[in-house]
Amino acid sequence: TLTLASLASGGGGTLTLTVQVSTGAGSITNSVSITSTTPDPTPSNNTATSTISRGSSADLGITKVAGNATPTAGGTLTFSLVITNAGPSTATNATFQDTLPAGLGTITNVTTAATNGASVAPTNGGNSLSGSVTIPSGGNVTVTFQVAVAGNASGAISNVATVSVPPGTTDTNPSNNTGTATVTVGLAADLGITKV
């Protein structure tokens, strides 16, 4: 409530308020009214309303970790994706994508874990992993899987995973929407000898 000392006939003014928008989605209608101890001949115009459409915002982030930074050619390698939401809104049906580079392939043994009411639904595409996640503010999901290291692979291999907010949600910090893990593949050989 704001009290004005007086308002001259024909006068007016502007009052600006800065408010914090609550989390959630949907519209918010705000009403304002003015009254006076002086009789008003037209009270019907003493109330005004304004409606805004409230959008969701979430800070999604993803990190990718290799279980072994120096795997051996022809062996297997475990990766973990950790997807987080720093809020303030719940990210509903956000998506993640991880396409394996040359030298890595055949994804197996996909497992998931979630905290704070989050959920994840991964899809194994053979040499790629994707899916949807729903993560409340402060929650996270972890997706762990194994890949085959090609027998002819060698040197450094970088694998990139990404996460994207759902339509209608603004990501307040898109710089952490990519996670990269780099491994250095060592050579392996199964030598044998027989003497007759």
Features:
single chain, 196 residues, mainly beta, five-stranded mixed beta sheet, 12 strands
Overview of this structure, please?
With 196 residues, the chain is mostly beta strands. The protein has no helices and 12 strands. A hairpin with a 3-residue loop joins β7 and β8.
Produce the secondary structure layout.
Elements: E1 26-33, E2 47-54, E3 56-66, E4 76-88, E5 91-99, E6 104-115, E7 119-124, E8 128-135, E9 140-149, E10 155-164, E11 169-171, E12 178-185
Parallel strand pairs: 3-11
Antiparallel strand pairs: 1-2, 3-4, 4-9, 5-8, 5-10, 6-9, 7-8, 10-12
Write a short abstract of this structure.
By secondary structure, the protein is mostly beta strands. It is 0% helix and 54% strand.
N-to-C series of helices and strands: EEEEEEEEEEEE
Mean pLDDT: 88
Terminal Cα span = 103 Å
Give the number of helices: 0
Strand content: over 45%
Biggest sheet, spatial arrangement of strands: 6-9-4-3-11
Described by the principal axes of the CA atoms, the overall outline is: rod-shaped
Low-confidence stretches: none
* Major β-sheet annotation: 5 strands, mixed
Class derived from helix and strand content: mainly beta
Number of distinct beta strands: 12
Q: Approximately how much helix is present in the residues? A: under 10%
Integer-rounded radius of gyration: 29 Å
